[in-house]
Amino acid sequence: MNSGWVRILYLHRQRLLLLTIVIITLLSLLGFQRFSFDNEARGLFRTNDEPFEQLEEIFKQFRPDENDCLVILKRPGDTFFTPASIAQLQQLVLTLEEDELVSHVVSVFSPEMLVCDPLPRPLVPPADTPGVDWSNVEEEVLTHPISGGNLITADSKSMMMVIQLGNQDLLVSDYQPTVDHLQQVLRRWRADSGIEAYLTGLPPVRVEIFRSIKTDTFNLMLAGACVAICIALLAFRHWALAFMAVAGAGIGSFWALGLLSLTGVKINLITTILPVLVVVIGLTDAVHLVFDIRESRVRGIKPERAAWLAVRRLGVACAFTSITTAIGFGSLSVSSIEVISQFGITCAVGTLITFLAVVVVVPWLASTGIVGGAYQGRVSRDSLCLKKFSVSYADFILKYRFVVLGLFAAFLIWMTLTTLQLHPDSHIAESIPKGSEAEIALREVDQQFGGMLSAIVLVEWDPRSETTPETTLPDGRELDPMAVLREVEADINGDDDIMNPLSILNFREVVDQSPLISLPQAIADQWVRPDLGRAIVVARLADQGMYYHRQVIQRFRDRLAVIESRHSGVKLSVSGSAVVASRNLSTMINDLVKSLVIAAAVIIVVLTAMFRSVKMGLVSLLPNCLPLLFTATYLVWTGEPLRLTSVLLFTVSLGIAVDDTIHFLVRFRRELAEGQNVDDAIRNSITSVGAALVVSTLVLIAGFSASAISVMPHSQLFSKLACISVAVAFIGDMVLLPAILRVAYRDKQKPSSD
Questions:
Q1: How far apart are CA 17 and CA 489, in angstroms?
Q2: Which tens digits make up the pLDDT trace of 718-743?
Q3: CA–CA separation, 376 vs 370, rounded Å?
Q4: Which string of b and e fits 174-193 if b means at least 16 CB within 10 Å?
Q5: pTM of this prediction?
């Protein structure tokens, strides 16, 4: 950055820099007035493809299974079927139905739960009914076509109620007050009755996630900032230097969030890490600038000129680190999943905004008398010791460079082979705070009722063909949708992974016992639509992970294809939130992996163009791959699958590793340009840049470690992997990169005096 206007700006127009800071800060404050969280229920796996559109259509024609809250009741020491317990349960149903958003509570006490012998009567009579044989009632409930297995377990110790929250496509904010009210009702009822009662289902889970996102966003920002400030103070040993570094990155984060909010960007489950990311990215450049400023001040250079020299020497390097990081994030924009594409664009823009903040705020602070002038250029004893150690360390690396390269080559090959064992996976539980009511109830539903997630089998036929229950088709075979439903249910009943099928058949089995009753049309329309030629079977899936679900669903689809082949004119397909989410999350992770490869290739090209050297671009490849391969290998070691959080971390790791690599290579090139031989250039680069890398690594680890206090398991995983990745990136830049440079570059031969 040697342009005349840039020099004038930093040396003589500090007020203009201050005005720029004030204007952008005010705009960011305005943006924070619009700061909000994305609470669309299906936003995480929304796409424009056919499976998602089919799911939307099913929800519109029948009713969305996503609006169902599940109440899990446990009484392991006794039976539910006593007058006192029945009275408590019936009162609970009435209390739950008082909420204005609750349209119906499906339970063994529901009006549609009838027994016909031959006159229809309630499956469970009122608690005060005289002369009731409650053991007989219990037996009827366990064998009832609707309740048996679906609303009560075979041992009669666990019961479930399904709270339906209407048929509309609701936002999380729409049903959050209702979920909070239902939880309060259950807590009071649990204390009074002595029966365990927990609320789960997609609405409570999403409310828990939504609430945790809002809490984590601010808590993690505050914790990360506090820890980073403490580490910066310990590393720089002077408040002014620490303040420059942290203020630059902190203001960058504030600008990024404010300006992005101004454009309508909302925080969701994935972009929760955005504030921490932009602070981390900003800190790497800020630390390098502050170290250069400190070096100038030690030499007796005035604050204003020290600030300008830092920008002149490192401005291009910082610009390219931000550009390469933005490219890494921007590569996510090609994802077919809208939320991932938005995440990539958001982070790319946030990175560039943070870069602007760092190169404006840090030099301006350094040029002021209050901050920049407060540091008088004294060098601590620790700095001198570190410099002396750096020289000895550099000599060691240069001497044993071939041993270092051999060990790393073997290690990289082994890690590459190990990472081939990774497979993508995701669980609902990883997004729910551990120990929360929703998480406890989720485990109970999985164990006792087959799972909270639903798989919907859609049966389709030409509605014009079904003039009678059994219609003869042109090929001579009969079209009987009910027979198809029976075969589908029979197949599910023989499966250990897909459980408890429910369809119109279960309800017809009840009403067909008596000519005096008929099924209400509102209930029938939730399961079969003869006018559309459609019917559904809903089964349950446990939260065993999308990797397992995809295998289960694929086998199920193969069996459905056999059933379909036996019934001409009928089409069978599998949908449901769990099925579509499993497919799209897998696509999401695969997209992230592909974009990561693309980003790595583009970054190498950018580095080649930056240094105008193919050799430099190739030299940077292995150190930047090291943290990615090690983190992936760590996942294999610990038995962790490739989760969404992991792949997002790989993108971050690549950006951080490239940042430090660029700063090291820029210094190395500068040393060569000043006439140093290769050994001295590497030695001086380690001595000068190494200290900055140590501090930035410590600050980054401190900042990322703050996420360990998160209540969200995925944030805790991100924190752990980020700390590992940052530490390994430091090893790559301080051990592997110098050894590669020494082998790749040779001293130029001086011309002979002859």
A1: 71
A2: 888 888 998 999 999 999 999 999 99
A3: 12
A4: bbbebbebbbebbeebeeeb
A5: 0.77
